[in-house]
Structures are given as C-alpha cells and as structure tokens.
Amino acid sequence: MISHSCSCSGNPLIPQICTISDIMTETSDTKIFRVKTVDAKRPFTPLPGQLAMVSLPGTGEAMFSVTAYGEDYIDFAIKRVGELTEALHECSPGQSIGIRGPYGNGFPLSELEGYDLLFIGGGIGLAPLRSLIRHSFQNRRDYGHIDILYGARSPSDLVFKDDLEKNWPLEPDCNVHVTVDRGDDSWEGNVGFVPPYMEELAFGPRNRKIILCGPHIMIKYCSEGLVRMGFDKKDIITTLEMRMKCGIGKCGRCNIGSKFVCLDGPVFYMSELDELP
C-alpha cells in the first residue's frame, strides 16, 4: 500500500514545504537532517524502510530513506555524493526544503514478528535499517534475539556511533558487532570485510530472519555466504537503490522487469530478486 502526502490538492508530485530543524554531523561526508513542516509537525507517517523525495529549490530532487521519525519530525541520513547532496550539506537549520512521500512498501513488519533478527549493514546502508531497528526495540515483545552487524571502510566512516556504542548494546537480548575494512591506532574492534566476519560469527538459520542493506558487492557476498550457512533466500530481506524520479511508477526509471522499485520496493526478499531479469 503506497501512501502519499502533499500540500496541493492531493497531487503526489508536488512537495510539501518543510524546514530543516536540525543538522547532525555523523562523518566528514554524512549528516542527519531533521525535517518538520512549517508548523512544526511530522510531514507524514512512514513505515520503516519507506522513502521520501527531498528537493532543494533551484538544485534538484532525490529519493532518500527515512532513517528515523518521531512525533513531530522525520530524519534523513544523507551522504555527500553529488550536486544535490553537496548543496544540502551546505544548508543550515531553518532552510526550507521540499518533501513528498512516503513511497515504497517498507519492511514486512508482521512477517518478522516472532523471529530472531539479524541486521547486516554496510556504510550508509545502515540508514534504512535503523528505522526498523528502532521499531523492533520500541516493540520489543514482538521479536526474539536481535543481532546487529555493521561495517564501514574505517573507524572515521562509522555512522550512528552513539547507537552502535551506547544505545543499542544496552537494549535487552541484543548484540552489536562492528567491523572496519582497515583500522587505525585507536581502533580495538574487528578488522575485516563484513561477509567473512558474518561467517566467522556463525549465525544459525533456525527461526532467524536477515535484513541486509549496503553496497551491492557486500549484498552479493553476504547473500552467498548466508546460503552457505544454511539460510533460505525467503528469509533474507534486502533493499534496492535506483535513481527514482517520480516515485509513483510513472516515469519508468526504476523498473526491473515487471517491478518498479518505487512501488514494489525498495524492500525485496532475495527469493524475489532471483525472479527478476
């Protein structure tokens, strides 16, 4: 079910005018943008895993995952990679931006209930997972044991450090595993890529669902490793990133075979992806 929220007679292509209320620096190239409507409300109510179009007048528009939301805000974790994100990183609190959404199908919350959860994230791929991680902690009785495995290129590239080091390890029945491709003099954690570290940790497939997001090469090797570990592809959930323009399945820029990532995704089971061209 796709939900749209906009300010002009229900037209899903016209954004709401919102305000950046706060900007939090995560790394040298990643910031969290907290967004509210002009009357200090939440622009829309997303499901974990859903997306929104963020626009900056005179610069452009792009789709981003909602990484967190509260009663009166939504957060986007945005990595500086191009013209729009560069311009957003130059913004200050109080800047007006456009928001439209939510788009996409979100994570299958009811299908995950009763299972142990293993979240595997790489780089900025932890951003969409974070919304589901927060949901699982807020509804703790609905889920079993939770493991969070996260990797980045270096210690300075780790995002959501407060969550990884202070918040999530304190949650009941939860383990957090962090690795970096290359350490530094201050790093005391694991050094190595996510896929082999995942196999070293030897997670068992019994009553466990996997939620996986990161660079394409990481997803590829993790999914292959999980199959070797005995997991069924029907128990592995991932997200796809495509250059989405309209967000409502009209422009055709994000279609793969019969699927539109903006409508049918971005969340897919690995077993579904095997059926796509």
Report on the architecture of this protein:
The chain is α/β, with parallel strands linked by helices. The protein is 22% helix and 32% strand. The protein is built from 8 helices and 16 strands. The strands form 3 sheets. It has a 7-stranded antiparallel beta sheet. Strand 5 (68-70) and strand 6 form a beta hairpin. The radius of gyration is 18 Å and the shape is globular.
Comma- or semicolon-separated keywords:
single chain; 277 residues; alpha/beta; seven-stranded antiparallel sheet
Give the strand tally. Answer: 16
Question: Uncertain segments of ≥5 residues (pLDDT<50)?
Answer: 1-9
Structural class, from secondary structure content? alpha/beta
Could you give a short account of the major beta sheet? 7 strands, antiparallel
N-to-C CA distance: 24 Å
**Oligomeric category:** single chain
Tell me the number of helical segments per DSSP (H or I, 4 or more residues long): 8
* Radius of gyration using CA atoms only: 18 Å
Mean pLDDT: 89
How much strand?
A: 25-35%
Helix content: 10-25%
Strand order of the largest sheet: 4-3-7-1-2-6-5
Can you summarize this structure?
The protein has 277 residues and is α/β, with parallel strands linked by helices. 22% of the residues lie in helices and 32% in strands.
